Fold this sequence. Notes:
Layout: H1 9-12, H2 15-27, E1 31-38, E2 41-47, E3 57-58, H3 62-76, H4 99-103, H5 106-110, H6 125-128, H7 134-141, H8 155-169, H9 173-182, H10 200-203, E4 226-227, H11 229-240, E5 244-245, E6 248-249, H12 253-259, E7 272-276, E8 279-286, E9 290-295, E10 300-306, H13 315-328
Antiparallel strand pairs: 1-2, 1-10, 3-4, 5-6, 7-8, 8-9, 9-10
Amino acid sequence: MGINWNIPVSERLNSDERQLASIIKEEYSNITGIVIVSNGKLAYENYFHQNHPEQAQHVASVTKSILSALIGIAIDKGYIRSVEQNVLDFFPEYRTDDDVKHQINIRHLLTMTVPHPYKDWHEPLDILCQQDDWVKYILNNIGEGGTIGSFKYSSAGAHLLSAILTRSTGKSALAFANEYLFQPIGIKQIPNYSMTSFGFEDLFGKNVKGWVHDPSGLSTGGWGLTMTTRDMARLGSLYVNEGLWNNQRILSKAWIQESVAANPHDYGYLWWLREDDGLFTYAAIGDGGNVICCIPTLNTVVAISSFFMANAPDRWPFIKNHIISALKG
Length: 329
């Protein structure tokens, strides 16, 4: 399965699609691009705020779902034994007598069921970003506060998965992704670049480019990746097509099924799960309204890129009311 992009936008827009563009401008003003792929074909593509098909931008926590795919590939290739492998197996230099820390495994990190010493949705990333050694800081904090199995969203936990990937493969998440995920599905290789400072704008804001990394050179696991809207659609299409791209196996079908299996937390392996009016969807979601929404029963992917805006409107009502309804006819 490949996607034919060679259809001018002006030839694809009918009256309903122009209405869609109008709704975006009026109600979802920070959207910069939208790509809809249905049944393996480009169904809709449009850009706003002078964005264009080759413009990459920070997709925030969509990065987490990319990292989930990379962990799956690493397991498929034998670099990591399984999701049951304990986290501390990968950091033998870290010594602790804390029983909880010794029980935490990769699955717990993927499903956000690791205890962390902060209130829900108030993770102190500013403190993390001031550390010289992010991994040691995270290892010191996991297992503190709460119990294993309770959902607590954490970007630090996702960063620990990036460190595990590097410990297992000898490659950064960026290098591993370029070789085994991005290039095979048509995403241009992301070049490495040396970060000389680690302030807010370097890690989260206007200076973000490529895939940012921590002071030790580890690709950030919870955010920091830049992608084009088309690239986002490619990733979603790989998942909807159960890991195949142009008949080449990129990711095992079993991993994808496991990653998006329904559960009480409505959160799979770094993918958000939703059941709405009998329709199951799963999505990679990043701050500001960056979304890769996969709708398997309709064989459709909706990719939306956005610039950051505080309290950006939830994309789900837009996808449900204006895209899914149109696809169902």
